[in-house]
């Protein structure tokens, strides 16, 4: 909207000037009891918030579009805008409008964005709210991630798009800020925004200066050199972290004292789990409903505190790959299992502990209320008990947690002495500070209470003097203290009563004496309220000064909570401690699917075994009719491996887990319709990704590869994929491969490392019964028609299908497959065409395949040094014509 500034009223001009500094934000401009928005902001906000659009005289011909939200309900409106991806700048009145001379001074005090919002109402306490900075520079990505509500601040660097997406996935930030190079790099930002509901914005280049980024980090952490922070090897990472820091300063306009550390990490410390695998395995939310119920997190989360819940989630998002670290976690869980009485007791003490991480955030921000401090005190009360209980344990990790837990008794004592037990939420209305904490406060308080007695005395005296029986001293905010005389006694009012107000049935008066008393009482009250506010801020600041101790304790509490949770689930669900090896052997006896077994009410879950290694049992081809339980089984194996690597016990009778560096899954038809790709295209893209990025230490779960296309193409692709994966020269990853192509069972015996399994079913006449048990061997029938019958397809269709199936006879394709497999095996023996296992396909060139062709032979034989240019032209022309004729044939 074009606006002529010279015409604007002074307030509107100031509004426009402020808005100019925050062009990408909606500006909430405080006017009295409302935050108002004007012009384009008003149009956008009225729509987003469904509030009425009005107008305001602004000096221009037309009124300015305007909408507003009341200040006392601002949080909920803010949250709604931020959730929709808007940034909101809040311009506050910086002086009391009653006292201001001229235009009231207003300033932006904070900018609220999706990644920096701190209001408790807007945040899910079991989830971190991450802001991520991504910098693309010299072919590398610097990534820095911060949770402003807890003070967590991380940094890393990666080289490829894939790794970047893995990080984005791991943290699912609600906001990404990036440099222009990343914004323009061709990464599909729209897809990212939609998929994760996150805001992405490219920031001005001043955020990404190498020098300025180093400076802001050094200044914030009060350190002379970045090597002190362990950042020396993170050139691009430093820029990402510096930009995030600068952005936090600019939006929060606070000193961010609760951000006390920055943690560099290497992505190589954790198992790699890509986007679709996270979704397929339903680690923290279900695929369809995006709920927690029905996920691995749901099964494992018996944490008592918000900090524990967040830490457990990050354990699941980042399983470990170093054996020693996994064993340390296992030891902690095991020790808690063995001391379950102490564990239960720990749980009792953890239960009342509030979210210390976010509380200290609010305390540092100076937004914590007196009630927050009482919640803080209640939490602190538990710490000595938790510490004492932890002392009983001797495993490494639990010892470290005990060591890190500071009982913070001094802070408990401070709050206990200063803040009353049931304080108000507001800070400016008094009633916060305890009797005995501060002498002046006590004195003012007693003036206030004694004042009440004085008033009662005055009332009695005047009643007697005037004879007005109903005379009363009353108080209201507008008139202060007054005598009230009902109309029936009006005639008895003496001359020294000064009339203040007339009502229909009474009149109100004051006297000199009452006025004097009022001054003393109200003065004391006002002074007390102001003093209490100062005292409260003092207490809050004293706590804020201890932020490092509190954060360290919060981490210890989170850890204790997570291990108690893992232990309690392990005991309750009958999990076992898996032994962890680095030889690549996965041996699970009577394994169960952690989630399905818990979701089943009436039926019993049937446990199954698994054996995979890097030798003869690399790849299991799993057949069986639809609904037999193939994908449940495969996910179960992947989840058990993942649980083992996050340090949890696992649902099995016995388990030996070879550490996997990555888990890949390609399961079912992906519902990636939003991206506009066909199911088959999505499937093949995922297969391509797996084949390119898996290593021999990865675990692959492939369900129905090739299903999205015709039988012959599908079978051929599935076949070739198995050949590629099982070849130790090409990949050799451990794989579970479910398929409805029974022809693939022919591969056992012809390709090393491939073993057939099927999920048993029992035939009962024309029907089948699912046994859910995995056994060696291939299924020879698909039982599709029986499954259709079970699903309720009408009998007439079923019997017609039987007739057609009889005619078509699947036999043809099966026997042909057998022939090809056999031929493959035979030729392999004669070395005529080597098996994939024995050839490095990457070395096969175009010329290997066409070297016997006569055109190629002729090209090869040309004596170029003796040819004239015209000869060469003619020869080329002839060869080209020959080639074209051949294509025409
Ligand atoms: P498939 O992949 O072979 O089509 P699913 O794995 O989807 O079959 O399993 C079908 C249903 O069978 C699941 O919804 C589950 O409830 C049940 N199921 C699968 N495995 C088991 C098991 N081991 N024990 C009991 N029920 C199972």
UniProtKB/TrEMBL annotation:
Q: Which UniProt keywords apply?
A: ATP-binding, DNA damage, DNA repair, DNA-binding, Nucleotide-binding
Residues noted as binding ATP in the record, renumbered to the chain: 624-631
Could you list the residue ranges forming a coiled coil in this record? Answer: none
Show the stretches that span the lipid bilayer: none
Q: Which CDD domains match?
A: ABC_MutS1
Q: Which PROSITE patterns match?
A: DNA_MISMATCH_REPAIR_2
DNA mismatch repair proteins mutS family domain: which residues? 698-714
Query: Which SUPFAM superfamilies does this entry report, sorted A to Z?
Result: DNA repair protein MutS, domain I, DNA repair protein MutS, domain II, DNA repair protein MutS, domain III, P-loop containing nucleoside triphosphate hydrolases
Pfam families the UniProt entry points to: MutS_I, MutS_II, MutS_III, MutS_IV, MutS_V
Q: Report which superkingdom the organism of origin falls in.
A: Bacteria
Its biological purpose is as follows: This protein is involved in the repair of mismatches in DNA. It is possible that it carries out the mismatch recognition step. This protein has a weak ATPase activity.
Q: Give the similarity note.
A: Belongs to the DNA mismatch repair MutS family.
HAMAP family per the record?
MutS
The entry's protein name is DNA mismatch repair protein MutS
The organism encoding this protein is Enterocloster alcoholdehydrogenati
At the highest ranks, the source species' classification is: Bacteria, Bacillati, Bacillota, Clostridia, Lachnospirales
